[in-house]
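User: Predict structure, ligand aspartic acid.
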Amino acid sequence: MGRSPLALHWKILIGLGAGLVVGLVLNLVGASLSEAAGPEGVVRWWIDFVVSLNGFVGDLFLRALRFIAVPIVLFSLIVGASSLSDLSKLGRIGGETVVIYLATTALAISTGLLLANLVQPGRFVSEAVRNQMALQGSAEALVMMETAAAPDLWTTMLEIVPRNPARALAEGKMLQIVFLALAIGIGLTRISPEKSRPIIAFFDGMTDVILQIVQAVMRVAPYAVFALLVEVIATMGLDVLGALIVYSLVVVGGLAVMSFLVYPAILRVFAGVTPGTFFPAIAPAQLLAFSSSSSSATLPVTLECVEKRLGVREEICSFVVPLGATINMDGTALYQGVAALFIAQLYGIELHLEQQITIILTATLASIGTAGVPGVGLVMLIIVLQSVGMSPEVMASGIAIIFGVDRLLDMCRTTCNVTGDCMVAAVVGATEADPD
Ligand code: ASP
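Assistant: Predicted complex:
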């Protein structure tokens, strides 16, 4: 990109690595300081200042991304849908996309369950450590349990149709925006060309304007990723991994299996795309997903990567990618499978095959209506745990125990979520022939 010889994803990776190191150093120095005033107090003040400054820079960047997410989906999808001459094609693409998304999500949870059954991460935590950790995070767990509500499939589906389009846009409800854009796009194919042409040209022009903004935002991504990592790691540290290392490794291992074995295999078979093409193309989106823990915030960059770097046609990716950012959460689903079994193992609860199948169904359905924002996977986990009849006490303690490592795992599962969206876009793009 630009005049610089270094590809964007390398720059982002360097930002990420540097942010990790600086964040860790700040965390370690901060932890070694006593509470006393004097010189140590001054150092503490500076550390807090640097962490807050980085938090500010990171949040500013995420705001910029969120600010372009709604217009980019609206404009590009209207243009995409208006170029689809026959409606049956839209129905086919839609059906294919949703089926692949749900199937890969179910596959991901099954992988998580399989690994957790094999490794039994719950056995690696002693009862004393378990009780102490349950106490530490209990306040947060209780707040979370109050906010979690089981999704009702009918309401979720009803919610796709906005009552008020302006409200859908204002609240950034992605599925409603997709619906609105498709309705306008299809409407445009049905009116006379002299009326539709200027409208399509307007939205097309606006799409280009927004893409300019995306590119400008991407240019600062390496610095922003640095700032995001400094803040997260400095405030959290990596020592939280301690007792939960086996559990964390099972989650990360499962995510790696999905991202580096399952997806490349599907891509090769159904899209003829090799890992050598796929991963460099989508690396900026993956790295941003990792740093932001939000597939919604990453959406503009995911779109740019899939369309411009991977070469999927606009009418396909402007539909498949925003849909994926909302309904496709393979990484989150896998994590929920592992977490549910881990908590069950901690408390000696046996989850039989029927209950594990219930987990697969609940987690797949729960992922449909949930926006990709940081931490939402943990809230959805409560619904999954409820579905297998865990008592509120066990749920509260279980959530409290895994709370400490949640942000780190969120970073990893969001990366898998975004990778899955890109994979499906490439597969749908390859199976749909070029427009005539
Ligand atoms: N943060 C994830 C995402 O945005 C969702 C989750 O919490 O698992 O995709």
